[in-house]
Amino acid sequence: MLPRNPLKISRRALLRSAAVVPVLPLAGCLRRDAPAVASSHPTDIRIVEVAHSFEEFAYRAPYQFGGRTVDHVTLLNVDCRVRTGDGREAWGFGSMTMGNAWAFPAASQDAGLGAMVALAGELRSITADCDEAGHPVDLARVLDPEYAKAADALSRTRDLPAPIPKLCTLVVSSAFDAALHDAYGKAFGLSCYETYGPDYMRRDLSHDLGPEFKGEFLDRYVPVAPRATTPVFHSVGASDPLEPGDVRQRIDDGLPNTLEEWIRADGLTRFKVKLNGGNLEADLDRVIRTDRIANRLLPARGVTDWKYLLDFNEGCPNVGYLLEFMGRLRKATATGFDRILYIEQPTARDLERDRSNVMHEAARLCPIVADESLTDLESLLLAREMGYTGVALKACKGQSHAMLLAAAAQKYGMFLCVQDLTCPGASLIHSAGIAARVPGNAGIEANARQFVPAANSPWEDRFPGLFTIRNGVMQTGQLTGPGLGAVPPRTPA
User: Would the pLDDT of 3 be above 60?
Assistant: First the structure.
């Protein structure tokens, strides 16, 4: 692993140098009569068949974040059959929650979800028609521009309040990308993380990240073996009951109802506190109450080391609000403030339009992490230029995206973390695989167990300790199976 010292290179200079690096041609991607790139090479795959479907689940309780409330989830499931250069075939599986309230907040939930469902159909056709061959990262390099074109075309034909955002397209495409990585590993009988070196990837990282990465491959930055256990960040939704007095109507399904109960049941030591922003007193009270509960319960169990992360989901109107919040919280509970590992996406996601809200001063107090802002290398470099010191990697933005930006963030000495998007089932297995490997990652959010446990039930028995948390950790050492490690409960027809 490289030293954690930031490189002295500007965003503009790096992007300018990256622009001259040759990439795979796009012309053959959608033409069956075009020759594939190095199609006979045994470590390349070609896409043979793609199918997609949806599942719907109701939440057991509403989840509030960033001023939005969601009460159901739509999962996009993708099956993909690939063939290697030497004739082997394998099916891969990818799954992702659509997360429209987060990925497309400008649209109503119905309109946003409808656009994402329609986009999934377009991406299935594009993926199935792709005639290129290569590693899944090679295929992502040629498919992503076509996916973007499809989103733009769909935006023009639907009655939407804004064009489909790039983040939204990433979420939909992530299930297809996951299926490709999964199929690739299964074709060779390997974890996909064993295929990120030069024996399988014939193009180094300079093709995607610029000349500073020449001669380097993903295996330099992302280890093959997962950590045995990974701490779980329990999501404290902005409307979740913390104590018995907060419960309006008890849910009698055998699961905890309050933060107090969750701490006792799962042995929690990591807490992700969702804050709405815009109401300083309410935000402060939420963190102070959470800290008070932790201080009351955890030392009694012999726990002395617990941590918080605070997630505003863009809710702070400006950086001044954030700085005032941090200053007042520090005065109210100095020990609680010291337990903050990082603060996630405090202000608006469009950094190019929000250049005045720089994070240099706030980042001197604790890491400030870009999440919704982070959609590509350019956005990572812009965030760094504006004082963000960390990046949130997510399975919902795509395995290829997560791996490449994990490499870039390490090269530039940035803080790394892995976050969730209420990922159940196979998508949680995918997310946990990333979280257990990214160097320096402090834990994983796994809030599907809180809000949509029904979607986890088909997977629980086959992955003990992954969906049921004990002593505050997830058992991630088991995630070494072929592909992404998730074999679906059914076989594609």
Answer: no
